[in-house]
Structure formats: structure tokens, C-alpha cells
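To the team - flavin-adenine dinucleotide complex, inputs and output below.
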Amino acid sequence: MQSFRFDLCELPKETESLRQEVRAFLAEELKDVPLTTRAQTWMSFDGEFSKKVGAKGWIGLTWPKKYGGHERTAFDRYVVLEEMLAAGAPVGAHWIADRQSGPLLLKFGTEEQRQTFLEPVTKGESYFCIGMSEPDSGSDLAATRTRAVKTDGGWIVNGTKLWTSGAQHAHVMIALFRTELNPDNRHGGLTQFLVDLKTPGINIRPITDLYGSQHFNEVVFEDVFVPDNRLVGTEGGGWAQVTAELSYERSGPERYLSSYLLLVELIRELQAQNKPGAEEEIGRLFAHMITLRQMSLSVAGMLEAGENPTLEASVVKDLGAVFEQDMPVIAHKLAGTPPSLSGGSDYQQVLGVLTQIAPSFSLRGGTKEILRGIIARGLGLR
Amino acid sequence: MNEFQTILTETIQRLLSDHVSRDLIIASEQGEWAQGLWDALEENGLTKVLVSEAGGGVGAQWSDAALLIKAAGEHGAPVPFGETIVAAWLLDQAGLPVPEGAITLLEGNRLSLTGEGDSLTLDGQVDGVPWARFSKHGVAVVPDADGKMQLCCISLEGVDLTPAMNIAREGRDNLTFSGVPVVASADYNPATVGFTLRHWGALIRSLQMGGALNRLLAQSVAYANERTQFGKPIGKFQAIQQQLSVLATQAAAAGVAANYAAQAVEKGNVSHEIAVAKVRADEAANIATSIAHQVHGAIGFTYEHTLHFATRRLWSWRAEYGAGCEWAAELGTQVLQNKPEALWPLVTQK
Ligand SMILES: Cc1cc2nc3c(=O)[nH]c(=O)nc-3n(C[C@H](O)[C@H](O)[C@H](O)COP(=O)(O)OP(=O)(O)OC[C@H]3O[C@@H](n4cnc5c(N)ncnc54)[C@H](O)[C@@H]3O)c2cc1C
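Output:
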């Protein structure tokens, strides 16, 4: 049985001034952002906002300066992220590149790819999306069918990616394609590519979600040419690379803070109702939050130390997703006030958003069941 | 983990594995005192881990002590080890000598002091005192005539004691004091003002629970790999795997919360962390004990099997020194008293 390592990790004192700076920036920038937008935080897309964050030097914080980064610590980055999330900043445009595509390129990309792609990301001008899921390949990522076939100077791609968040706004997709058919080795023959979404043959169709927003997309590839120099890492090495990428994807504070604004509004609502009896439940949520934050910080510390916290990240994401998913239910039980789509109090509107988007929390980034399967493997059960 | 902690972990794990057998726990449940275990802990200086070197102790940190108390919880050591570590720490911090032998915590608000200076005497009642029957001394925090909190060391020899037990059959005795002379006293350490014995007790139990949850996990995983039904180990069934993963995440969360509290005490910067740890441990215990029993089937429901040594402890400890619901209500009251915007600064203040 592999044991989990959650060494405690304290934020260095120096991060405090950065925190105050971020708070002041957000207080100013978010003044006029509607609460229903803020309630969706990293699912809200606002290119202008991302440019301002880039100008502040808060995207690619840890990346090398030669690629436009700022060579600061993972702890500085953690502070920026958690402040943005707690305030409900519309960080969706730069979130994915900052979180996983950039680190992926730093790890596996060529020098030319880093030179080309990273700096625009740090300026908040270039957005990435993740092309993993397909119609027949959700949890079972190795079932990826979108084919890239070798041709002169590059690859020809055919197939469909599905549920791609932000693809309609993004400039680049990091996509997982099948480059070799080998029924005996499903995890082999997969390769990652940088795909310029303006390439002819790509058709992006937004899909309206139950909340009514167009967040994710279907992306169809028809004889799309991707040049050789846009292959990321090694041909056939996509599975290992994607696994590393998912560690970044699953480890951040967004995995427990998605419902934070609802907690804030719930407190306001309970105070307005002057209804006793909520103390215990609110205290319990507080205890969960403090604990999740320490667990999440611990994973950030491991990433900073160059360790591989795949298992620990799965633990945090599973606990975090359950926590943020429970929040609308708990709010409903405590306050009883109906959610609303428009009109009503701030609380009702935020509850309206989160009640509807909460089901996605334990799907996106790997389902609860898949994460628990990863944990079970770590326990030596499979 | 630093080098000292690695050595400390090896020492305590070896010591507890050697001493805390199934037979020892059963004997303890029948009323016997684990003298050999206790002597080994004392001889290795482990009960004085937090006592300064000048005071004859190890002079180690709270994160070191946390390892020991967690390990004691993991093995179900039937002695007031955590209690003695904390009592000795409090006495030493207050500049009082630390007596030999087990020291328990006299926690409660039904005690009072009479007299002054060196001639203080204690009156009143405390229920559910851990292992009082085998403890030579007890430590209490009681207001003096002027209402100033005094840390008192009291000899338990000859004190009126009614034996009682928690459901893990650990001694939780009821004591009545009438004019019992205080052995030594000092002003209660101002660095920890506001922190009652209830806090320190809750920290001990949270750490023990972290250890016991790890034991539950290890035992349940081992059993799932051993027990075969339908031609394969039950651990190969996804339903079982998913349950054990939940157990694992709960154990991990409780462990982190308890360590975090110990670290905050070490840094002299403790506020809500102990309450958080107890709330989290309580919730983890509720979930984990039910999963562990489900995975073990009927065999885990027998006295013969050792699973209940951990589960009955968790069911006891979750309610001692404030149940999760009580600590949660304290935390929630604090949160609800402030503006909603004050929550985030509170979460991120450290
Ligand atoms: C809001 C949102 C945004 C997303 N954004 C992106 C994106 O940007 N890029 C991208 O590539 N993907 C994205 N996804 C897709 C996401 O990664 C998938 O939804 C997820 O991997 C699950 O796949 P699926 O939806 O096909 O469900 P399925 O895999 O069909 O699963 C359905 C149910 O079956 C369970 N299940 C499946 N296999 C097993 C198993 N082996 N054992 C036990 N249970 C199992 C699942 O846990 C789930 O409960 C997004 C999803 C959402 C909801």
C-alpha cells in the first residue's frame, strides 16, 4: 500500500504583500462584474481582464523569464490563484494555459514551441484549450479515436473532440490524437499536438449547457494539416504526458473553491434571515475549507519541489469536488430560499448559478469514480 | 520529515509494535494496567518529549510530539500517553517540576481552589478523567480567589475515584476532590490563554484519531486483498475499491487537519486550528468506521477480530473533549458573527 504524503507547507511571509496587491487590483477590476459572472469564476471568459492580469505579471508566474515568465515561486502563484478564485475573477481565458498547457510545454515542448507559444500566454493574449475527450472517449481516455496520419512535413487529422472548454475563443488546442493503431497496446500510439485553431478544416460548434451558457464545444477535424514541428514531446508518448498534465489540472485551489461565492452569500442570507441553528453547519464547512486548503497547499509544495503528487492531487480533487458540490445542497437546507435565474437577492442568483453548474464539478477533470479508481490503485487494490 | 522525526518514528513504531499486542489490549480492557508499555515509554523519555532539556526532557517540538501521539492512536496504546505529554509540557512551560509516572488531565469547570500561595486546596468534581486510576498526578486549570487561572498539579493518591469506562473500555474515571492539597501551581501560561484543557485534550484526540484512521485503512485494505468471494479477492470489486478510496481520503484529511493544528501550536500561532482538527477527525471517523466494518463483513463484528480496537476508540474519541458538532458550532458562531467578507481573510490569515 502506497501511503499518501501530505507534508504541511506554509506560505512564505513574502507572499503577503503580493496577496494585498492582488486584492486591491481585484477590488478595483471586479467592481462592475455581475455576481452571476463572478460565481462562475474560472469558467468565465473575459479577454480584457486576462490582459490586465498579464500586464500585472501574474500569468506564467513561475515560468522562465526568457519565455515571458517571471521566475517566481509556486507559492506566489498559489496566492494569486486563490485570491482570484475567492473574488470570483473571470479568469477562464488564461486559466488553462497558465495551469497546464504552459507547464506541459516547459516539460515536453521544443525550444521553438516555447519561444512561440509561451510569451503571448503570459500577456493574457493567447488562450489554450484541452482536446482530450471525444464522443466515445470520456473516462476511458485511451479510447481516443481522432486520427493523425503521417504525411509529408506533418500530419493529417480527422475526428471529433468533445466538451472542449473555451474552444470557441481559444487560439490553440493541445490535443491528444491517435498516431498509431495497435489494439494490443491501447496506451501506446497516442501523441499530443499543438493545433492552431484557425487551421482550415476545423469546425467549432459551441454546445449550450443546462445553465444556458456556451462553455464547452464540439470540435470537428476534417483533413486538418498539423506540421511536424507542432508535435509535443515524443510520438507515441502521449499517454505519459497527459498523465503528467492531469496532475497539474487536478491539483489547484479551483478544485475546492468553485462554490466559494455561494458560501459568502449564504452567510449574508443567514444573517439577513436572522435564523439560528446554522452555526454548526457553517463551522463544519469552515473546517473543511481550512483542511482542503492545507492539502492543496501541500500538493503545490510537492509540485514546487519537483515531485509527482498524482495520487495526492486525486485525493484533494475528490474531497474538494464533493465539498464544492455539496455547497448548494447545504445552502438549500439551511436557508430554504429558492434559487433564481434573474431578479431576487444576490444570494438567490448565486444559488441559481451554482445549483445548476455543480453537477459538473465531479465530472470535469476526471470523474469522482475515476479519481477513486486512481486512489484504489495507489492503495494496491488494482 | 527531518532526521530526528525519522528516528522518533522508528523508535515509537518499534516500541508500540513490541508492546501493544492484541493480548495487551484485551488485558487492559479487563482492568489491567500496561505497566511494561508505560515503563518503556517513560524510559525512552517519550512522555517528556515536550519538556525542555533544562527540565529533564527532550525539548522537542509539537510536530514531533504529534508523531508520537498519532502512533499511540494507531496502535490503540491503552495508556494516558498523549495526556502525560501535554500535562508535562504545560507544567514545564509554567516553570513547575514534572513528576514521574502518568499524569492525566482534569478537564472541566466544576473545580475550585481555596487558600493562597503554597497552601492551595482543590474541591469539586471531574468526570471521565482518562486513566485516572493508573495516573499518579493530574493537571487542572482552575481560577483562584481572584479569578486568575492557575495551572495546578495534583496528586491523585487517595482521591475519591469511581471507575468508569468509555466504549473502548479505556479508563474514564469520575473523581471527587474535597480539600485536596495542590502539589504545585503557577499562573496559567499566558501564551496559551483562552486555551483550556479542553483544547489540548481535543488536540490529543484529533491526533490519536488520525493514527487510528490510518490503522483502519491499512487493516481494511489488507483484509480486502485477503478475503476471497466469488473466486477473487473482494478488493477486486469496484464497489469495495470505491469505498476504500473514500476511507483513504477521509483518513488523509483528518491527518492533515491534526498535523496542521499541532504545527500551529508549535509556531505559537494557534487560533481555530484545534477546533478544525476535531471537527474534521469526527467527520472522518463517522465515515471511515462504517466503511471499515462494511468491508470486513461479519468477522469484523466479532470481539475476536481486532478491527474494533480502532473503531471503538474512534467512536469514543470523536465525542471526548468536545464532539465535532460542538467545535463546529463554535467555529460557525465566529464566522456568522462577522461580515461575510471577513471569511476569506480569516481563511488566508496564515
Ligand atoms: C463542464 C465540463 C467541461 C469540460 N471540459 C473539458 C475540456 O476542456 N477538455 C476535455 O477534453 N474534456 C472536457 N470535459 C470532459 C470531461 O473530461 C469528461 O466529462 C469526463 O472525463 C467524463 O467523461 P464522460 O462525460 O464521457 O463520461 P463517461 O466516461 O461516459 O462516464 C459516465 C459515468 O460512468 C462512470 N464511469 C466511466 N467509466 C467508469 C469506470 N471504469 N468505473 C466506474 N465508473 C465509470 C463515470 O464515473 C461517470 O459517472 C469537460 C466536462 C465538463 C462537464
